[in-house]
Amino acid sequence: MKAIVVSDPAAGTAGMTLTERPEPLAAINDVIVRIHASGFVPTEMEWPSTWADRAGRDKTPSIPGHELAGVVTALGYGTTGLSVGQRVFGLADWHRDGTLAEYVAIEARNLAPLPGDVDFTVGASLPISGLTAWQGLFQHGRLQAGQTVLAHGAAGAVGTMVTQLAREAGAYVVGTGRAADREKALDFGAHEFVDLDNDTLKDVGGVDLVFDVIGGDVQKQSAALIRAGGTLVSIVGPVEARPADGLAVDFVVEADRAELGEIVQRVRDGRLRTNIGDVASLDDAISALNPTTRRLGKTVIRVLP
Ligand SMILES: NC(=O)c1ccc[n+]([C@@H]2O[C@H](COP(=O)([O-])OP(=O)(O)OC[C@H]3O[C@@H](n4cnc5c(N)ncnc54)[C@H](OP(=O)(O)O)[C@@H]3O)[C@@H](O)[C@H]2O)c1
């Protein structure tokens, strides 16, 4: 099969090559999916799981990409719940070969059915950004209607999902980002916007939940805004700043079939809009994944045109 592979952590996305790899085999509880579209998070090249298996052993050359939408072509020993020919989307295991390829072997529990009226490109754009937003807001952040959320990077892949889901849940959403992101963040539902390069976070006042996608000083300044009983949720590694009287949580997104179902249903009925930027074929993936201009939305590789 055709696949994108990486071999050198120092080379990052610039070290990607398009090559031939053996088709994967289905292990216990796996399915094989013929991938139609794959999502990609640019920071994957910095994640240890891109380079090593669960035991820490070098697994290069490895296939990156962890979001997929496609069609099940084979079942592993003992696999239940999905069938050959079914449209699916989901989140591939961090430590196994990923989704920038024509086929992937993936545990069935990491997948959900993709309704027939949702395009594969849309399906592949949702798993990481949608699940991360859902889990950060509702599981780790315990968001309640009427609360205020500070949604950092509100025009980004995760931030646009955070903004929309928080607003739907009845929260007041303060989005942040670059000056150029103001209109987009407001368009995705932020009630107000803070330009982190020119405005002052202190002026935001008290918030109940900070959804941090940036870290560093922005995280520290945001922790100071959290009201008693509030939560700092970070997705960029161990938290360095803790609210004076609240919780701090950092987490890595997990696959969840029921949550994927909630997310895709919102896309179908218009409550959730995707934030897709470039769409490229597998043959053109390397240049799409090494853009020369700022990314505006999620890059999706359309593996099967
Ligand atoms: N733990 C997890 O499970 C998990 C899951 C998903 C993502 N992540 C991580 O979360 C981060 C965000 O992911 P994403 O896919 O949403 O990325 P993204 O689409 O690039 O969105 C991030 C947004 O934040 C903006 N931003 C970053 N630093 C900023 C700063 N200092 N001031 C103003 N705006 C700033 C970015 O603008 P610029 O493009 O101009 O920088 C971009 O608009 C990444 O580091 C990713 O690895 C973690």
TrEMBL record:
It holds the Pfam family ADH_N. Gene3D superfamilies: Medium-chain alcohol dehydrogenases, catalytic domain, NAD(P)-binding Rossmann-like Domain. Residues 12-301 form the Enoyl reductase (ER) domain. InterPro entries: ADH-like_C, ADH-like_N, ER, GroES-like_sf, NAD(P)-bd_dom_sf, YIM1/Zinc_Alcohol_DH_Fams. One of its GO terms (molecular function) is oxidoreductase activity. This is NADPH:quinone reductase.
